[in-house]
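Troubleshooting log. The previous structure file for this entry was overwritten by mistake, so regenerating from the original sequence record. Sequence copied from the archived sheet and checked twice against the printout by T.R.
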Amino acid sequence: MPKNIVQLNNRFIQDENQRRRYLEEERRKKNRFMGWVLILVILLFILPTYNLVQSYQTLLQKEKQLTELEQQYKDLEKSQKEEAALAARLKNSDYAAKYARARYQYSKEGEVIYTIPNLLP
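Regenerated output below.
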């Protein structure tokens, strides 16, 4: 047998209902405010994080460029040393004559020249 429960509708019950609605509305306002604060904090963390990632990518590019430039420097230094050594050897007149004969196929009268690839410095 179901019993019917009747709620009293007196001044105290009305005041309590009104107070509960007021507290619930205040809680909603507080939650809404905290939601906006949370969104603002997230945005404030996203912007510096984006800048940090972008700076890190730039740093990686610069490091890669630095290694490439160091390798180019080593290659240029090596070729410069080779050129300097060749210039020093070309100061010797006998070597210069042999080099010109081999490189540019100069010959003395009656000589036959046979070229061998990759023989010259």
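The chain is about 75% helix and 0% strand. Archived copy saved in two places this time.
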